[in-house]
Amino acid sequence: MELHAGTFNPEDFAWKGLTLTATAAKHIRELSIKQGVLGLRLGVKQTGCAGFGYVLNTVSEPTAGDLIYERDGAKLYVSPEAMPFIDGTQVDYVRDGLNQVFKFHNPKAQNQCGCGESFGIQAE
To answer: What is the pLDDT of residues 54-102, one digit of tens each?
Structure first.
């Protein structure tokens, strides 16, 4: 196996995976039915003061190579390229007063910005 600094091959890793709480699964399932989609895609993008932000999009057609995490009929799609940043994450859906939001309990997140919109990870 040839190694290069700064490169990543998703096939070199065994993932712990993602988990959905019962409330997250219920909300994803309801959204999927309401919008006529297969589920949601969780990804990351570079943003914010801490480095990365979570991105959720609906999935009408799966992408080749997608990892699919399922609970109670709810499907969460993830590309292998996103896994180094979110592996082991528990996805929850919480209500706080009038606010309803997905929460990500990510063991890889080493720091978070003050507003909670972005996170940073430490290179291994």
So the answer is: 899 999 999 999 999 999 999 999 999 999 889 999 999 998 888 898 9
Query: Under DSSP, is residue 23 helix (H, G, I), strand (E, B) or coil?
Result: helix
Sign, CA torsion 42/67/61/19: negative
**Does 28 map to a domain?**
yes
H or E segment and range at residue 78: strand 74-78
Give the side-chain half-sphere CA count within 13 A for 108: 24
- How far is residue 107 from each of residues 3, 40, 96, measured CA to CA in Å? 26, 21, 23
Number of domains in the chain: 1
Cβ atoms of 85 and 44 within 8 Å: the answer is: yes
Instruction: Provide the 3-class DSSP secondary structure of residue 108.
Output: coil
Q: Which two tokens stand for residue 42?
A: 């969780």
119: CB partners within 8 A, 6+ apart = 50, 51, 52, 53, 106, 109, 110, 111, 112, 113
Q: What is the domain extent for residue 106?
A: 15-121
